[in-house]
Structures are given as C-alpha cells and as structure tokens.
Specification:
This protein has about 375 residues and is an alpha+beta fold. About 30% of the residues lie in helices and about 25% in strands. The protein is built from 11 helices and 19 strands. Helix 5 (about 105-110) crosses helix 6. The longest helix is centred in the middle third of the chain and has 18 residues, at about 215-235. The N and C termini lie far apart (about 45 Å). About 40% of the residues are buried. Bound molecules: adenosine-5'-diphosphate. The site of adenosine-5'-diphosphate has 20 residues, from strand 4, strand 10 and strand 11.
Length: about 375
C-alpha cells in the first residue's frame, strides 16, 4: 500500500492499494492510516524520508506495530532537538545555539565563535547549510537562510521551526555516512561510506560515497559506537537509520542522525546477501524476518550524486554513453528534467543525477566515478 501526500492516479480504482495522507500533520496522517488499517490490516509501516518517519512512528504506535517511539522519530527530524539530546547524553556533537530569523544578525554574529555553520533545523540534503568564518560571512549566510526560510513552501514545511536558524561550531575532519538498521534497539551497521571529496564549505554539496570505508578498523569501530550511542540517546529502536559523522584525531562527532534510509537513489549502490536491495532488507526486517546474518556484498561499491554546477535551464547532457563505458560503472541515471530550471545549493533541493560503480578496490570505485563524471558535459542555459 502506498501512502502519499498526492492522490495516486488509480486510487479510485484500487482503493485498497493506495492512500492519500496529510503528511505535514503527523497525527492526522496517523489517524488516516489507522482508519485504513481497520479495513485493510497493515503489518508494518515503512517511512521513506524525514517527514514520513514521524508519521510512520505515530501510526505504528496507534496500531501497536514495532517501530520507533514517536518522540524519538520527531527528535531525529529536528536538528536542534538532536543536538540537545546528544549533549544531554554526553555524545560528542557540535556546540550549538538557536537564533530567531527576525533577530539582528550583527548582534548574533558578534556573540558567535568562528568558524561556524548556520543551517535550518528541518531541511535535508545540505539545503541552507552555510559555513561562516567571520561576522561578515555570518551576516550574509544568516540573511540568505532567512530568505530561504521565508519562502511559502519552506515555511509550510517547517511551521514554527522556519522561524529559527541553528548555529554550530564547525567541526573539521573527514566525513563518513553510516547506513544502519536498528533491530530492537541494537544497531546493525550495513555500510560505512567514505566521502573522499573534502566538505569544507561554504556550501556542503555531497558528491562521492564509497564503501567499504578505507579508514582504519579502529576508527570504524569508534564510528559504530558513536552511532549506536546517538541512536540510543534519541530513543530510536527499530528500522533504518542514516547518520553523518566527522572523524578527527580518532574522535567522532555526530553531525546528523535520521530515522530513515539513505536518500535519493543512493541505495542502489548497496546489495545484501544474494542480491537483495536495501529496501528489501528493510521490508524483511519490518515483517519480522531475521536479517541478522545478511551482509553487504563483498565488492567495493560507490555512488556519485552529480552536483548542479550553476543555476540555469538544463538543455542537454552529452557524454552519457561514454560515461557508461568507463570500466566499473554500473549505471548513470539523470534525474533532472531537460528544459527545467536547475537550482544549486544552498537553496536547491535536488541533484542532477547519480553515477553507480563497482570495482575490486574502493580507490578504483572512486576513480571510475570521477572518470565517468568527467565525461559528462552539461549544457546549461544561464540566460542573457
Ligand atoms: P542535512 O541534513 O541537510 O544534510 P547536515 O546538518 O547533515 O544537513 O549538514 C550537511 C553537511 O554540512 C554535513 O554533511 C557536513 O558536511 C556539513 N556540516 C554540517 N554541520 C557541520 C558542522 N557543525 N561542522 C562541520 N561540518 C558541518
């Protein structure tokens, strides 16, 4: 059964396989799911993003299905709440503050230690995340994020959270992403991805993810322990998690923890057991099957989120065939639509597409992704 905020085209013909939900109102959506389940019993509710994670937890609580406690899913949705709970539990995470969007940015800038990062509390995909090295940069970043937060669609999504900007100390170091599955409160690590492109700001565009990690085993164990401690601090217990951590001097900092699986099409880089997808693994777990022993395939794998280089209208993508010919490349998928405007970070919220690769070593995966990307030429009309 697909639950979506937009009515499915065939919903009237097949009312038992789809359901239109008020996703921005978790309790309303949970009540809609409960009403549906009274006639068409549901065995599990699987969220696909940050917003639906809160709805799935609330609906599961009503139906008595194993899931995350609703408060834990809500906390993972809010970056300020995440920081508060992690600090309270003694889990290493950046120091932070909250500044109302209508405050005087100059006064806030004068109080801030540098370098720092400013961000909205509820958006994803690095949207609105900006580094500032001094008060002038703080002032500019603050105004830019406040403008983003004042857009009607963003305001509607964030509600009262759109009235605040989170300020954090900037944590240097290498960054990894952790994909995991919580099994009754215990964390099974599915993959640790290295992010070989430096993420130093001012904007934080994700590009290459490669697994297994090339970090020393000791660092990987520290990453696993920190992610477990973070999930516990929030009270998350069941289902997928996606975390971002920074590692420096063998210390780990939790940057982000979400109660969902990896975003975009990135999960296509992962296969488990004899070729199961991440989504199949998550479904199996939700249905009570034993996934304990399922491991990621042995072959190193990776994905590149193709960045949007500049704003404009995407006219053409050249070199797709050549990119797909690079040894190790499994596929190149373009998700942007020709003829539509491209919006880069920090305001943008999507990627141009994805490149997937497999190779005998992580370094060769990374090289294949870079070479395939190099072969692509984007024709972007930036106007007069
Ligand atoms: P989102 O959930 O939108 O991806 P994050 O809070 O995870 O937002 O920030 C996006 C990226 O910005 C992170 O993956 C990291 O590279 C960078 N970043 C965010 N906060 C910090 C910080 N306090 N110190 C260093 N880098 C940060």
């Amino acid at each position: 059964v697909v639950g979506s905020d937009r009515k499915q085209a065939l919903e009237d013909l097949r009312p038992d396989t789809s359901l239109t939900l008020e996703l921005s109102e978790p309790e309303t959506a949970a009540a809609q799911i409960a009403r549906f389940a009274a006639e068409h019993p549901l065995r599990a509710i699987i969220p696909t993003d940050d917003e639906s994670a809160v709805v799935a937890a609330a609906a599961s609580a009503r139906l008595g299905l194993p899931h995350n406690p609703p408060e834990a899913a809500s906390a993972a949705r809010r970056k300020d709440e995440l920081r508060r709970l992690l600090h309270a539990a003694g889990v290493r995470t950046p120091r932070y503050g909250l500044v109302p969007t209508d405050a005087d940015p100059r006064a806030a800038a004068a109080r801030q230690a540098y370098p720092c990062v400013l961000k909205p509390t509820f958006l994803a995909g690095s949207r609105g995340v900006i580094r500032a090295n001094n008060p002038d940069e703080f002032d500019l970043a603050f105004r830019r994020i406040a403008a983003l937060l004042s857009r009607p669609d963003v305001r509607e999504k964030g509600r009262e959270a759109a009235g605040q900007i989170l300020t954090e100390e900037f944590v240097p170091g290498v960054e990894v992403a952790v994909e995991g599955l919580l099994l009754g409160g215990r964390l099974k690590i599915l993959a640790i991805f290295d992010k070989p492109d430096p993420l130093e700001g001012p904007f934080f565009e994700e590009t290459i993810y490669v697994t297994p990690s090339r970090l020393p085993k000791g660092s990987q164990r520290t990453i696993g322990r920190a992610t477990t401690a973070a999930a516990r601090a929030l009270g998350l217990r069941e289902g997928p998690i996606h975390a971002e951590l920074r590692v420096n001097d063998d210390r780990c900092w939790i940057i982000e923890l979400a109660a969902r699986s990896i975003g975009g099409l990135c999960s296509r880089a992962l296969h488990f057991g004899t070729g199961l997808s991440l989504e199949e693994l998550i479904l199996m777990h939700a249905l009570g099957r034993d996934v304990e022993k399922l491991e990621r395939e042995r072959s190193p794998a990776g994905v590149m989120m193709i960045p949007i280089p500049r704003a404009g209208i995407l006219r053409e993508i050249r070199g797709l065939h050549e990119a797909r010919q690079v040894p190790g490349i499994d596929d190149v998928t373009i998700s942007a639509t020709l003829g539509t405007p491209l919006v880069p970070l920090p305001e943008g919220s999507s990627y141009l597409g994805f490149i997937f690769a497999h190779a005998p070593t992580p370094a060769r995966v990374e090289n294949a992704l870079r070479e395939a990307h190099r072969r692509l030429t984007l024709v972007i009309d930036t106007g007069p």
